[in-house]
Write the structure tokens for this entry.
Amino acid sequence: MSKLKVALLHLLPIAGDIKKNQSLIEKAVKRAADQNVDWIITPELAVSGLQFSQKIGTKWIMQQPDEWMLNFVSLVQSLNTNVFLGCPEKSESGELYNSVFVIDRGGNIIGKQRKITSIIDDWSTSGAFIEPIDMGNVKIGVLICADAYNKNIADKFLAKGAEILIAPSAWVQGYTDQTVSGNKDR
């Protein structure tokens, strides 16, 4: 495998401000692409911001790709890079998922991973599909936030041939492991 240049976007999406977050993502992806990176990884739920459901609910979540995503994949193609985009999605049957979409240099959505371990995502359904995404020269596994809390999911990706694991996550002030564990002294 050759060297990869990766940009990890450290963004602060605003919970529920979809248009502002989409604009922020576009600007950050353009800026990262100017550095000739191979992969750009957004945080978990970059489009919606963490805890969005408490502010705007979930009725706005659509099947992907929606109009914005179609425009975004064209942008990714024009920048000649690959992007891992954290975005909620609705399935054909109506379930909601915390997902990461993998968009290649050609502007194609070549895969997606739905978050499996939903500890505090009361709005989302747990994904069940664990399969590496073939990036052409390397197979990757996507662990979304809590999916990386133990090694079970990572081991399944590795057993299926994943060579690299990435773990897009998002944390906001007051929303740390103490929220999950109940330990207020951390």
Q: What stands out?
A: The CA atoms of residues 90 and 96 lie 5 Å apart. Residues 175-186 have pLDDT under 50 and may be disordered. DSSP finds five helices and eight strands in the chain.
